[in-house]
Amino acid sequence: MYKTFSMELAGRTLSVDIGRVGAQANGCAFMHYGDTTVLSTATASEKPRDGIDFFPLSVEYEEKWYAVGKIPGGFITREGKASENAILTSRVIDRPMRPLFPKDYRNDVTLNNMVMSVDPECRPELVAMLGAAIATSISDIPFDGPCATTQVGMVDGEFIINPNQEQWKSGDLNLTVASTSEKVIMIEAGANEIPENKMIEAIYMAHAVNQEIIKFINQMVAEVGKKKHEYTSCAIPEELFAAMKEIVTPEQMEEAVFTDVKQVREENIRQIKEKLTEAFAENEEWLALLDEAVYQYQKKTVRKMILKDHKRPDGREITQIRPLAAEVDLIPRVHGSAMFTRGQTQICNVTTLAPLSEMQKIDGLDSNETAKRYMHQYNFPAYSVGETKVSRGPGRREIGHGALAERALIAVLPSEEEFPYAIRTVSETFESNGSTSMASTCASCMSLMAAGVPIKKMVAGISCGLVTGDTDDDFVLLTDIQGLEDFFGDMDFKVTGTTDGITAIQMDIKIHGLTRPIVEGAIARCREARLYIMDNCMKPAIAAPRETVNEYAPKIISLQIDPEKIGEVVGQRGKTINEIIARTDVKIDITDDGKVSVCGTDAAMMDKAVEMIKIITTDFEAGQVFKGVVVSIKEFGAFVEFAPGKEGMVHISKISKERINRVEDVLTLGDKVTVVCLGKDKMGRMSFSMKDVAQA
């Protein structure tokens, strides 16, 4: 027997089957929201994984093609590697869940979410977020939950709770908020310049809905939840900390970590580890824990100094931004480039422009999203943090950082009609010490402007950190956190936006949620900082988009033709359009509604191609003058091609004002001639005259 729990959520029924499937998992929730169905499971290993100093949590979001009635394409007709959407969804599920597991828990845990059916009215990503929380809450896995997630959209200025796929795609806000029973624990947002106060209103509207969901989950836990299992704690023994402090005093540790040069700090810590290793050489148990113990010692030292004395490791004030620098055009021959430096974080971004036909095609479970015109990609090589490691391609972190910076700029991009280009920006991390995704946002914005992309407004981003004390009122917000403050702090709150509002948010925390004063304070602090960055760093480098695209970028001419004429431009089996391309060396894209884009680097050849297309799609009238080439000679006249695939006949009597006996006496194949249209002859062919051109 299984049990079904139901609640009404945003006008639809959410139902959860417990005990119906997946009985051998530690926890399993068979989720139904409308006709969207997701199977969420939580499993844990019996013993901790040896030799690690972190919690090994894996989150998977599996998109099954049968969920939308499709068979995967290609030779291997089965699902392949996770899509970008699946990876980003896994990250959003991970972020609110991870802080709620015990900090000393080292058992492997996997949260798997399998999308089995998709109802366009109920987004499967949201169902998976709820399913992961429910499966873990009712399981025997130690978890200080539950947590719940709500999404908020905005259409025509009105908030929509848990919008459908179309509203999510076309609205002005994509906000995802996760909460515990008391606090907000995760925020993810993309927005069309939403003012800060409006964003806060939306966040706490979602938080209120989350409280109803948490009551629903608590009901399930009370009725079918399992007792949490015992586990082996991997906490560092207090005796080890006490012994370390006798060898390295808190004052010595403070001196070691408080420097603005990352390499100096790392060398200081290396010497401390070396000293402690010698001291504990006879204690193998302590030696095995030494790396984590030194890390914890650093963490306690940094947190104490920030919280009590407002002293940061590099000596900055809590609102102070590290030294800034920006420049454009540092990479020759690319379409646009810019470099943004903030302290020891440095990003170089390169922009590439291409015809709209080179947009990224998306084949996923959301039928509303089939292509991506703007693509931002982020790379994080090992040398940027002074390490050596072979590159294996982008991981989940790189994909997530790239998506955040991409989301930050979408709101200010020109429309396809205003700027008919596909746009790709790539952020190369040259150096990293905190918040490279926000540096990528600044570098991308400048790179786009340098490339001549007419973005509507400048966008900048910054990250705000947090150190908390024993009470909710005891906290310090830190503007522009560096790596050490990120590692040892409680929050990485990233906000991007223009002078008028927010375009993206991503919040990661390590504690059990944030109070409203912290959320409001972080958002306000980020606004103040991003305006400072724009005014004092970005605008002096490049204040506005360039008037024209870079000389090496392709140029595009757009025109509109009658959709019924598309076949004439394309020709049989593409013969006509391929002939235009061969003659002019351009690229031509035509959409189903008759929008034509001619792309090339030679302006004269582009104009020639446009003229050909206009001629082909013209409804011919008597009196029109054309230039063409003689392509065929008959006894009765000559055929002149005046555009690819378009020919008309000049009767022998219309070639010259004087009488001629043979066409060949005046014309030869390949001759370029000017003709005037006489209309259509009795056979329906275009009839031309050479001798009447002067009169036209």
Q: How do the strands and helices of this protein lay out in sequence?
A:
Blueprint: E1 3-9, E2 12-18, E3 27-33, E4 36-48, E5 57-63, H1 84-97, E6 107-117, H2 124-138, E7 148-155, E8 158-161, H3 165-170, E9 173-179, E10 184-194, H4 196-224, H5 238-247, H6 250-257, H7 262-279, H8 284-309, E11 324-328, E12 336-342, E13 345-355, E14 360-361, E15 371-372, E16 374-379, H9 396-410, E17 421-431, H10 436-450, E18 460-468, E19 475-479, H11 483-488, E20 491-497, E21 502-509, H12 516-541, E22 555-560, H13 566-570, H14 575-584, E23 587-590, E24 595-600, H15 603-616, E25 625-634, E26 637-643, E27 646-651, E28 672-680, E29 686-689
Parallel strand pairs: 5-6, 16-17, 27-29
Antiparallel strand pairs: 1-2, 2-3, 3-4, 4-6, 7-8, 7-9, 9-10, 10-21, 11-12, 12-13, 13-17, 14-15, 18-19, 18-20, 20-21, 22-24, 23-24, 25-26, 25-28, 26-27, 28-29
Helix pairs in contact: 1-2, 1-9, 6-8, 7-8, 9-10, 14-15
